[in-house]
Records
---
Amino acid sequence: MSEPLDFILTGGLLVSGEGVRRADVGVRGETVAAIAPDLRDYPAREVIDVTGLYLLPGAIDVHVHPVYEDDVEACSRVAAYGGITTLLHFVYARTGESLLEQVQRMLEDGQARSRLDFGLHGGLFEAPRQVPEIPRVMELGVRTFKFFLAYVKQQWYTDDYHLLWAMHLLAERGGMAMVHAENGGGIDYLEDRYWEELGGPNAAHFFSISHPPALEEEAIFRAICMAEVADCPLYVVHVTSARALRPLRQARAEGRRVFAETCVQYLTLTEEMLRTCGALAKIGPPLRTNADREALWQALADGTLSVVSSDHAPKRKAPFGDLREQPYGAPGLETLLVVTHDEGVNRGRISMVRLVQVLCENPARIFGLYPRKGTIAVGSDADIVVFDPRREVIIRAEEMHSGAGYTLYEGRPVLGWPVMSFQRGHRVLWEGVVVAEPGAGRFLPLLEQPPATPV
Ligand SMILES: [Zn+2]
């Protein structure tokens, strides 16, 4: 018999993008070395009994902002508590900043302090200055870049000229464009028009009426057209509404390289939250209606949407201060897996297999990390989450690990919780505590292989 395994997880139910099966998993070094119905006779230094528990590939959150109440180190810790093992962070280059410098800074910070493996997306606020930097940034392993079609007033906006230029640069170099797709000029006008009449301390209706789904649909359609002209793969972040699904369905039916995600909050919460939580529920694009929520679940099940992310952006806010002045964003990393599982799988909207596709396999495929990440297979990184489907937890901010100080899921019970996890064979979550050290995480260059069709 060959060299002993470092450890075996025995008795678990292995979930992949194809199905669920009873399988023992053996790990040697940093990779999965053996998978079989029974490995207990195989020589191993340690046997860990996980009878009746799910073995999931480590979840990948592709949409994280580690620059607010949680930095790169804190995000990796918060995520690890939630059963996530890989993070794709946005590096924002604000107006006046160099994209290259910002990327170098976060790359160094992540290598020094991230407890989890991570990749980086660029995010451009000042396209005329920053688009020309894209080729040099790509050489560092950052190959996906987000452009804001919203936020004209805030001057984060990328106009069509620079969007198309950037898409050409990306297409020529094996990169991918990402868009925050809302029509910024339209939203700015609607905010000005409705503030007098509908503004004030509880401006929930103002927020909804000034960010209509039609302006999300329009921006997605425009981005798809631009990507077609440049022959550039496109990834639409945080899709929120039933209407926005129409151009995505069409593009995917035509076989275009257009991928789209939604976030767990759009699947599980509605605009009612603005009334009860005020600005704590101010996120961009906004929370929508129940009908939108159900349409998103359907799109997730039928393959129109390929990924669920958190858009983790915890910020300090005055819940009932002037809504226009309060920042966009909410925490969500730690609850991404458990809430998507509870609302999706436990309520029969998606299967356990689909859960693994949208949180593990598709993120890895789309961002060029598959099969190293996103699956438990012989030769893949031993990134494994042991998930107990019978463990019930009531979500409370005081028990969460984010610096946000609140969660939009306060008091919500969820059935199913991660009980241990490993990254490249090393313990991450162990006996209820994150034991992975700062600096344990490695930087993952994205798109070393082109984006692959999601499942
Ligand atoms: Zn975001």
---
Amino acid sequence: MGTNSPSHLRILTVDLEDWFHLIDYGGSADVEGWHRYPSRIQENTAFLLDCFREAGVKATFFSLGWVARNHPGLIQDILREGHEIGSHSDVHEMVRKQSPSGFRSDLRASIRTIEDASGQPVRFFRAPGFSITPECLWAFDILLEEGITCDCSVFPGSHAHGGFAQMVPGGPVRLRVSAGVLHELPVTTRGIGGTQMAFGGGGYFRLLPGALIRYWTQRSPYLMTYFHPRDFDPSQPVLPGLPATRRFKSYVGLARSRSKLKSLLAMGGFCTVSAAHDRIDWERVPMIETLAGTESR
Ligand SMILES: [Zn+2]
């Protein structure tokens, strides 16, 4: 389509979780109960792997430790295709609801499990529900201390489960924390009427017209995506007891999402977190010195 430009940084990522891993939903809060639900992650991930192979692109899959423990073969399938694996926490808890020690032990469990399944070090992280907020800045220190070099958890705007409204959208940032400097690749958002919409994944990708997503993609020098296997599964069951707004956000647009993804990938230029990380001249990336009053970029 002639839209592949070296000045575009388009980062392809997937949060590797099953259809019932909705955040902040009472019915899936109890980890022991997850085995009650019939898993659909193998088939749904197979669709993504086929799609990425056809498009000739590589992605970063942020896996739950729980997924790596229960589907170690899936991690191998992903690696065999040349993709890479990061952590999406162990059991999908929101960071802002955890204590620092609880977050650290969950992160360690996820890293250990994923490294056992993959045989490779885990260097990249994305928090469930973009839930690292100004109230839990300690999480950035802990990430760096536990070996994460590049974090992808920040949503620069307000979000149902988290969000970093003070951080200016637009591209990579460096975060000065007590443990050193953490590289951050935030999700890309576009504002309409004061609402920041992360059009590169999740409910926004399913809801918004494909033409608008491609238009914004073309005009964004930096795009961080965040797909989920369930975003492309029109046959998934509907979880019982969801409020109407959650049901809408979770199931809207499933019928057309597969073809929208193919059209988006056809624009070209998509790459993994590590490939993007290597391409960025980090010395020139804005440094946020004091996160507490985050405006200094
Ligand atoms: Zn998630």
